[in-house]
């Protein structure tokens, strides 16, 4: 076996792991890896900021299910990646960030752009490691991919000293392949106990979290729900795990991203089967209210997730797909024929039909629900939506409809502003055939708007729908109970940014909308321009300044729901 440059071996590993695109910025300390990339099949997208590169790799990973890769040089490149690593860690996204490093002999001498990035990254990664020997290069990267994918997925950081990158190793790709990743199966007795609890419940719900999407278990979820005739709710990270036009869809519970009828259905339930959900605080709110008198079955691939927020009545460790399949097999063994919809299913349907919120406003300034009504009507079921954090994310979670997995991407737990545009670059790079729509706020757009230049440079087209209330709306509303006023008052006509002109400066089309009747035409125009010119296109919608979805009292209900009558228990022999 001949010796080869160890970075060439690393690139062969990347190719065999299914990586076709990487995102990054070259620098002196990472040039040997870049030299090897030149002779590979891997496409490199040069971003404008390393944080943007991590978010692009994150978006690529979320939509493909594979491990995203971001590359940077030493020093500030690595520290710029920390926010992206934290975001991927919080949302269980497999990603590898590769950093260059000063030569090994200079690491203790405060060399130029030398920082102990491994120690900095440890709290926000599954594994942070520095390559010490050229001979370990291909095997270290194999292990990095295995760790990123295994168990609860997450990010890995690999630091490459310059002198080690220049070394050689003995490597033959013909006798190497990705390391196996275990998909842990549930214990049969735990599955039987779960079905016992479901059978005894009068008003059961299935709660699908992001783990269902990560596990590609949406079909198993649907089959189980249809066989048992149990309504299904989703968390924000689980949007798309279950089609929202399905008769068994039961909405979303939460304190911000929620549907009112979803909250009502949840509070009426007596048992929750939670699969791949973390019970995040924005979902649960007050734990005493959330738990109530209902029982919980918690399914997760990571054992230490069980009992982290509260103790379930039954915990099941396992990969979501075999767990859901095992539950269906056990249910079929007891009752082979699918059940008919019962009183509980009909009740959830009544809540859905009555506890709706208006989205047909004709008001000027535009009310945000009207924007999402137009988005839902204009874009097709296969459209991939990307959104981040703030009032616009809350409105999106409340009003946007989603039908398919990996079509609604949101940085749910970390919530970094600026995530959307670079993430959309990653999504569109992975699936150029799909329509990609970014839903963004005015302030978040400004965090990493330089990445629009990347999309323009590489002809990566998508539509950006900006919900602009001209100031830090969520922060202003959050601070009111505390009597403070630290929010920055930004207005595009009073010293702020003209987003239309900013887009045009990148060579990209943009249009501002101030009347609700103009939204539909603007979305159609943007879709056509993005496809024709192969550029990102902005539709900036000026919305009501004081609109409050997070904390306001108005829910725009059609009518109040009536108290729930007593329901009979599920009869498996029926």
Automatic annotation (TrEMBL):
Enzyme Commission number(s) from the entry: 4.1.1.47
One Pfam family matching this protein: TPP_enzyme_N
SUPFAM superfamilies per the UniProt record, alphabetical: DHS-like NAD/FAD-binding domain (SSF52467), Thiamin diphosphate-binding fold (THDP-binding) (SSF52518)
Enzyme category, top tier: lyase
GO molecular function, one term: tartronate-semialdehyde synthase activity
Ranges where the Thiamine pyrophosphate enzyme N-terminal TPP-binding domain occurs: 8-119
Domain Thiamine pyrophosphate enzyme central: 191-327
This protein's UniProt keywords: Lyase, Thiamine pyrophosphate
InterPro entries hit by this protein: DHS-like_NAD/FAD-binding_dom, THDP-binding, Thiamin_PyroP_enz_cen_dom, Thiamin_PyroP_enz_TPP-bd_dom, TPP_enz, TPP_enzyme_TPP-bd
Presence of keyword Lyase: yes
Domain Thiamine pyrophosphate enzyme TPP-binding: start-end pairs: 389-541
The UniProt record lists the keyword Lyase: yes
CDD domains with a match to the protein in the record: TPP_PYR_POX_like
NCBIfam families: PRK11269.1
PANTHER family per record: GLYOXYLATE CARBOLIGASE, THIAMINE PYROPHOSPHATE ENZYMES
Similarity section: Belongs to the TPP enzyme family.
Protein name according to UniProt: Glyoxylate carboligase
Gene it is expressed from: gcl
């Amino acid at each position: 076996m001949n010796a080869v440059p160890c970075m060439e071996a690393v690139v062969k590993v990347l190719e065999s792991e299914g990586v076709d695109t990487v995102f990054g910025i070259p620098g002196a300390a990472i040039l040997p890896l870049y030299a090897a990339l030149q002779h590979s099949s891997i496409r490199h997208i040069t971003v404008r900021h390393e944080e943007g590169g991590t978010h692009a790799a994150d978006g690529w990973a979320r939509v493909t299910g594979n491990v995203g890769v971001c590359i940077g040089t030493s020093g500030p490149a690595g520290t710029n990646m920390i926010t992206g690593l934290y975001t991927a860690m919080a949302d269980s996204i497999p990603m590898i960030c590769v950093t260059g490093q000063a030569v090994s002999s200079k690491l203790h001498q405060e060399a130029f752009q030398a920082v102990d990035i491994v120690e900095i990254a440890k709290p926000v990664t599954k594994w942070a490691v520095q390559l010490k020997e050229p001979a370990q290069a291909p095997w270290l990267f194999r292990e990095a991919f295995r760790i990123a994918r295994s168990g609860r997925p997450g990010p890995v950081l690999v630091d490459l000293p310059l002198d080690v990158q220049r070394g050689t190793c003995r490597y033959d790709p013909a006798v190497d392949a990705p390391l196996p990743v275990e998909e842990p199966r549930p214990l049969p007795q735990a599955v039987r106990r779960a079905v016992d609890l479901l059978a005894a419940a009068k008003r059961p719900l299935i709660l699908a979290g992001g783990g269902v999407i990560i596990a590609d278990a949406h079909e198993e979820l649907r089959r189980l729900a249809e066989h048992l005739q149990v309504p299904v709710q989703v968390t924000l990270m689980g949007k798309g795990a279950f089609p929202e036009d399905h008769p068994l869809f039961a909405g979303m519970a939460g304190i911000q991203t929620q549907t009112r009828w979803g909250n009502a259905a949840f509070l009426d339930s007596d048992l929750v089967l939670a699969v791949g959900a973390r019970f995040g605080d924005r979902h649960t709110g007050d734990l005493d209210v959330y738990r109530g008198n209902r029982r919980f079955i918690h399914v997760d691939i990571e054992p230490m997730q069980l009992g982290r927020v509260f103790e379930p009545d039954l915990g099941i460790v396992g990969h979501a797909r075999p767990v859901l399949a095992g539950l269906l097999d056990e249910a079929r063994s007891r009752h082979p024929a699918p059940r008919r919809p019962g009183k509980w299913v009909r009740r959830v349907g009544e809540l859905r039909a009555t506890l709706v919120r208006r989205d047909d406003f004709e008001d000027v300034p535009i009310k945000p629900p009207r924007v999402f009504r137009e988005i839902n009507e204009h874009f097709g079921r296969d459209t991939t939506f990307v959104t981040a954090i703030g009032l616009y994310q809350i409105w999106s979670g409340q009003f946007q409809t989603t039908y398919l997995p990996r079509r609604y991407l949101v940085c749910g737990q970390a919530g970094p502003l600026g995530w959307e545009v670079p993430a959309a670059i990653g999504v569109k790079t992975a699936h150029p055939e799909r329509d990609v729509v970014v839903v963004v706020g005015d302030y978040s757009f400004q965090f990493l708007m330089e990445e629009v230049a990347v999309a323009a440079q590489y002809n990566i087209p998508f539509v950006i729908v900006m919900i602009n209330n001209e100031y830090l709306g969520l922060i202003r509303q959050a601070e009111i109970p505390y009597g403070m006023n630290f929010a920055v008052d930004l207005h595009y006509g009073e010293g702020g940014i003209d987003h239309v002109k900013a887009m045009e400066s990148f060579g990209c089309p943009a249009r501002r909308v101030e009347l609700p009747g103009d939204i539909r035409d603007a979305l159609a125009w943007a879709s056509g321009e993005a496809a024709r010119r192969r550029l990102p296109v902005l539709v900036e919608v000026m919305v009501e300044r004081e609109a409050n979805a997070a904390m306001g009292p108005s829910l725009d209900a059609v009518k109040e729901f009536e108290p729930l009558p007593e329901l009979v228990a599920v009869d498996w022999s029926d």
